[in-house]
Amino acid sequence: MGALSNVYDPEEILWKGCPCGLHATMYEHQAALSGAEGSRFYAAESTQGTAPRDQGPALETLSDLQSPASQSEGPSWDNQEEVMVNVAKSALLKGLFGTDMNRRNFLRAVGSTTAAAAIASVIPIDKAIANILDANGPLEKTNLNVGFVPITCATPIIMAKPMGFYEKYGLNVEVIKTAGWAVSRDKSLSGEYDAAHMLTPMPLAITAGAGSAATPWTMPAVENINGQAIVLATKHLDKQDPTKWKGFTFGVPFEYSMHNFLLRYYVAEAGLDPDQDIQIRVVPPPEMVANLSAGNLDGYLSPDPFNQRAVYDGVGFIYKLTKEIWPGHPCCAFAASQKFIDETPNTFLALFRSILDATAFSSAAENRSEISAAISPKNYLNQPTTVIEQVLTGRFADGLGNVRNEPDRIDFDPFPYHSFAVWILTQMKRWGYIEGDVNYAGLAEQVYLATDAAAVMKDMGMTPPTTTYESYEIMGKTFDPTMPEAYVDSFAIKRG
Amino acid sequence: MSQDVKDRLKAMVASIGFLVVFLAAWNAFVVAQSGPAADMDPELAALLGPQAKGESALPTPGDVGSEIWGHISNPFYDAGPNDKGVGIQLAYSIFRVLTGFGLAALIAIPLGFLIGMSKLAAQALNPYIQLLKPVSPLAWMPLALYTIKDSEISSIFVIFICSIWPMLLNTIFGVASVRKDWLNVAKTLEVPPLRTAWRVILPAAAPTILTGMRISIGIAWLVIVAAEMLVGGTGIGYFVWNEWNNLSITGVISAIFFIGVVGMILDLMLGQAAKLVAYAE
Amino acid sequence: MNKANKIIKVEGLERSFPSTEGKGETQVFGDVWFDVKEGEFVCLIGHSGCGKTTLLNILAGLDQATSGHVIADGFAVEKPSLDRAVIFQGHALMPWMTVMGNIDFAVSSRWPAWDKEKRRAHCQQFIDMVHLTGSENKKPAQLSGGMKQRVGIARALAIEPKVLLMDEPFSALDALTRGSLQDELLGIIAQRGQTSFMITHDIDEAILLSDRIVLMTNGPEARVCEIVENSLPKERTRSDMHTHPNYYPMRNHLIEFLVNRSKSFREELASASYDPKNPPVVRPAADGDTLNQVAS
Predict the structure, then answer these.
(1) What CATH superfamily is the domain C6-83+163-292?
(2) What is the reported pTM?
(3) What does pLDDT average to over chain B?
């Protein structure tokens, strides 16, 4: 029955309860598609077999239903293409006959072989099937607005426009420059942006209702790893040691940012309480350099190009790259509302694929110079190309008279490990941004779409990681994602 | 040559003189700030900007002049959603200002009329107007974004809310202080209320209303720049922000120039309108 | 003249305001009775504060009496009417309208159905009458004080009212201008037979213009003291009226009233012979024939 049936067999019951014919009722169909363990938006195509973890109550029901069919002749679940062809044929016949009873009566009357030929003569069945298989279904909409904050972290989102990655997936995307993350968040919440560049902690904060009304938000992909730095004003050349920073004022771009959490982590490891011994101010990235030059800030942990820009303008020096604090830490994210995914799944998938594609392209060192030239103009980052190139290629002046070579100063890796989210939540808990009992894994898995990312990446011929939880070593301290509460408790300097 | 023409000529010469002195001082200041280029490894020098090599962060008047000329000579180019010519950006801002201002006038003037004609209404509504009037227009922005959920309409709303108060208050004041004699003339002539409003009260209060409108458009133009810097997207405020984002002082100064010129033109236009309705007693 | 139709009848008029101390009411004037007959020119003389302007406003319908009423042409006055034109103390011209515009505003209110041509011609007639030909398109600000008041006169007369009410129309003008305007007004009124009521505190103005003069005592609680009939002949002018033997008796009587009796009349009021409905009528003349108790 269903996807594995011979559609020309009059005795087969094809469309009993649900559109795919696999489930007895519509309810079971929905349950299988939205199964907690499986991919929520990807199920429509991968239906079964490609789902990363073949378990959970909903899927058990599925295998029960399959078993009689898989014993009979015909396509098996191992051959996904055949399954799809069969589903497509079934859909076509449904369009032709309307009800299952009609189909079976017709086939009984004329015989299945004659019927197959007759149907093929009126419908170009092979072509129709090819169309169905070709895409994941028609795009619900093709004109999209994607917001970005003009920093190098957003490289994949931005360069996908001038370098044609959105077009490749049939999308007409306008990338809209945004003044800051608060505006980016508000415009995303209001639906003006279909998806946007955010900071990795933001979708967690939005979903948890920290700093805004709680709205289910998702983070299908990380944009960049590493790529931030601690910059100090030139007058602090002699204070290249965090223990000497008591009384300093630092800038971070947003409260719910890796910048804030990494700076806090770093100074706390040096024995300073970030809420008492130093002052941390939220400063929009473009204003960091001017504030540093005016003496309002002693330093900042900010996204590039504003670290490099301080060096370029001779007002500060790069004290520490964040990859020296936590190699491979996430920073910015590609984020979308749950609503966007639910209402336009095919469009979302196409957008997701173009981002993954662009991220992979951005990650390759040999493409970085070309990307620098593409994203420097006024329409995108609006910065001197030299500055962007130093950030992306990792060959840069550090403001201390050296030219450093750090090819992994910034890298682009889309995989949204659940453990990233857990670490961020531990820091939000540690510094009092969220209170009470935190369902670390639950929130991480709801917001960070690691399972979906793995499925799409695999489908695109990429190799996703096999696990969504990893352990990290940050400044000599081990983080175990399975014991978040113990991790929070282990810090000497914390709130609450 | 009449004395009047002579005086005006003198003022013009003085005006130009001030400008020349100002530009010369500016230029001298920038040149004095620039130190000699430091002796630097060429490989490193290639990675650094002019400022790190001793140049002043401030542009010279010449830099700003050529930047402004560059914008004027190609005002309507469109190189994507985030990079449009200054003409297009100004058009966006002017459109928002005129829309918000126009809507405010449509409401403030008739409403002010009604309130101004009734002492009771004026006294009953006065506390609310006094409470809302001093609120910074930008304080409405988060509320607008949250409730309207559209940044374009929100910007227009902010313009609307900031331009409504001066017009409302001036209309109320203008209408309430129409000379009793004129109203008595209309009464003894048995002029119907609408005709009195149109032929007597409106022309009598028009100069005061126009003053309110002139204050309003000035505020609206100040506010749109700030609102667009906040919300971004398009408009002259976004233009400033984009130049600031590039830490381009030259760009910011030329944007200030354009903002000033447009603000002046808007004010002159209402000034002309005010002249049309002005009367001497 | 007694048999002539009474256009205005003032009957027991009283006007009070809430007193400034917040307790009770202060009466400005009360028990005021007099009338204006058709074609007659009546002046009201009194010191400031006796409620002259308030009285005129009640006559015009711009203010309401506390008690009593005004009958105009057989109907109680409740609101302003085009039948009673007012010339205001300040000229009250609309400064944004031209001379023509100001008069046309009145004319088009009177005859809304008239077309522009007809209104223009009508207005022009009155502009010529007050000798402002050539100034039709000037704004009030471009006119002298005297010229402005001429426009006021033209505007009031252009609507051809039954009664012309004037509130010290020349008080803001210099003596020379005032004189020539008085002469002009006298001519126009005589020529048109215009029924008029004027408030003034200028004795010569009253003697020159009026047929009868109502004397009002000082406020508060002002009353009509008596009514003086003008004993000078109708054909008088400002330049020759002082040569008439009756001029000084008239003038002296009025000055005596303004200087002394307006203050002390309270005692006279208390006397039993005073009847507010029929205040004494006097006719000061050289032949000594002064008292003339005429029932009205």
Answers:
(1) P-loop containing nucleotide triphosphate hydrolases (3.40.50.300)
(2) 0.73
(3) 87
